[in-house]
Structures are given as structure tokens and as C-alpha cells.
From TrEMBL:
The chain crosses the membrane at residues 7-24, 30-47, 59-78, 102-119. Keywords: Membrane, Transmembrane, Transmembrane helix. It comes from Sphingomonas rustica. This is DUF2809 domain-containing protein. The keyword Phosphoprotein does not apply. Pfam families: DUF2809.
Length: 124
């Protein structure tokens, strides 16, 4: 295990943006889709903060986690584990499956890989 301060700072920044979106944005694009893109980026940054996973592996893991959460929504995961009444669990895990979210998650994973690979000064 490792701790990478740069990724931690970025993760905190993305988390803050996600909180602002969740609390104040009520639209049909930013909250549902940009929020999902950022969710995958946040998970990616979290993984890169505390693991030695390389870019592609971390992006795939972040995408897999997002897909698992989304498919959990399809099968009522939150209710099945007895947390349907818990507001935080409903926010974190969600309650409504939307296949469009899968595309937003994939876009988030592609964005992080593209940014990481094109970042100036990055070791190749």
C-alpha cells in the first residue's frame, strides 16, 4: 500500500464538486451524467491514492466498481441488505438503474486514461 498525496488532493477536489452537484444541481445533464462521469474519476483517484495500481488497471477497477453499483441498483441491492430506509446508503449506492449511466461511467474511465497518458512529464 502507498499514499500518493497528489491523487488524494485531486480526489478531495472531485468529491467536493460531487457534493456541490448533489446538493445544488437539479437538471437533466450535470447531475445525472456528469455526476456519474465524476464518480468513476473519484473512485479512480481514490484507488491511485492508496494503491500501486497502474493507470489502466485502476481505471478498469473503478469502472468495474461503478458497474457493480449500477447493477446493484437493478436488483435492489440497498433494499436487499436492509438499508432501504437509510438515506446515506440510498445516496451512495443509488436506487434506480439506468443503462445510460453505464455509458457515463465508461466515459469517466476513458477520460482518466486519456488525461493520464497525455499528462506532460509523465513517465512512459
Amino acid at each position: 500500500m502507498q499514499f500518493h498525496r497528489g491523487y488524494a488532493v485531486l480526489a478531495l477536489a472531485v468529491f467536493a464538486i460531487e457534493v456541490v452537484i448533489a446538493l445544488y444541481v437539479r437538471d437533466r445533464f450535470v447531475r445525472p451524467y456528469l455526476g456519474d462521469v465524476l464518480a468513476v474519476i473519484l473512485v479512480y483517484l481514490g484507488l491511485r491514492t492508496v494503491t500501486r495500481l497502474r493507470v489502466t488497471a485502476a481505471a478498469i477497477c473503478a469502472l468495474a466498481i461503478a458497474f457493480l453499483v449500477e447493477f446493484g441498483q437493478l436488483f435492489g441491492f440497498v433494499d436487499r441488505i436492509g438499508l432501504g430506509h437509510n438515506r446515506v446508503a440510498r445516496i451512495v449506492f443509488g436506487t434506480g438503474f439506468d443503462p445510460h449511466d453505464l455509458l457515463a461511467y465508461a466515459a469517466g474511465a476513458l477520460i482518466v486514461v486519456a488525461i493520464e497518458r497525455s499528462w506532460p512529464g509523465r513517465r512512459r
